[in-house]
Design goal:
single chain, alpha/beta, 8-stranded parallel β-barrel, two-stranded antiparallel sheet, 12 strands, about 40% helix, about 20% strand, binds (5S)-5-amino-3-OXO-hexanoic acid, binds zinc ion
């Protein structure tokens, strides 16, 4: 029976701790949340780090300490965000790789992001791709828009396969200014994937979250959940913890005969040494 990789994105860079006090922003909170998510069926954690004032940061020491703590206290695949926040300069985003995570996000193009712009010019994508391969970090290609699927094709055609030999991508649907969180948009993206893609996941921001999760399972994809993407569990009911989002994803996956994948199976899926 094929299983499901559940990725948890617990924090993100957009939500303020003052607005959502249960957002895991300290290292202790992040590790506790990671352990609970692993127990609930997550295989991979997508990490954005916060500073002592709970603001997004790409501070190298904090990134390295976070990777070390998650490795020591969980079995999860550790993926650092190279997207950071829309305010982070490209050089600092490239330097994230120096913390030597198992995996990193790599967004395949510039996109409108609410009122802001999430900058990912082609030369930056190439630098990130090349540095990740040099440091043996496995990229996960983030796809916010249909054109980015074609940019992924261009990347693989131009530079060859990433470290590990697998190509895993993740659709992020529903960011204001990019692809909507609708099933037709997801299907269009999946149909455009290059043949080198070995696995894909998807997440829907906001009210499209559950339809995207159900369609993803039906289409053979993997799931991403977490408070980076969703702060509402159901209409009028805020999310209490990342673990409850993982638990719900795991229940859906089990019902669809695609039970959650262990972190070691996730490593095999992604081409990360076990
Ligand atoms: N915070 C967004 C601007 C990623 O992690 O690579 C970018 C983002 C994507 O979240
Ligand atoms: Zn992110």
């Amino acid at each position: 029976m094929p299983s499901t990789l559940i990725t948890v994105a617990p924090t993100g860079a957009e939500t303020a701790k003052a607005d959502v006090p249960n957002l895991p922003t300290t290292l202790d909170e992040l590790v506790a949340e990671a352990k609970a998510c692993e127990a609930a069926g997550a295989g991979l954690i997508h990490v954005h780090v916060r500073d002592a004032e709970h603001r997004p940061t790409l501070d190298p020491a904090r990134l390295a300490a976070t990777v070390a703590a998650l490795r020591e206290q969980t079995g999860l695949v550790v993926q650092l965000s190279t997207g950071g926040s829309v305010h982070d300069p490209l050089e600092r985003r490239l330097a994230v790789l120096d913390a030597r995570p198992d995996s990193c996000s790599l967004t395949c193009g510039t996109t409108n992001f609410g009122d802001d712009v999430f900058l990912n010019p082609w030369p930056f994508m190439v630098d990130l791709y090349t540095k990740a391969r040099e440091l043996h970090v496995v990229p996960e290609f983030e796809l916010f828009d249909l054109g980015q699927v074609h940019a992924l094709r261009r990347l693989v055609d131009t530079l060859g396969l990433p470290w590990g030999g697998k190509v895993h991508c993740d659709f992020v649907l529903g960011v204001p200014g990019a692809m909507p969180a609708t099933v037709p948009a997801l299907v269009a993206g999946v149909q455009a994937l290059p043949p080198e893609v070995t696995s894909w996941s998807a997440t829907g921001i906001g009210r499209g979250h559950l339809p995207i999760a159900a369609a993803t399972l039906a289409l053979g994809g993997h799931l991403r959940v977490g408070m980076e993407d969703n702060l509402t569990y159901a209409k009028g009911r805020p999310v209490r913890s990342n673990a409850e989002l993982v638990e719900r994803a795991a229940r859906l996956a089990v019902e669809m005969q695609r039970p959650p994948m262990s972190p070691d199976d996730a490593r095999r899926l992604l081409g990360i040494l076990v």
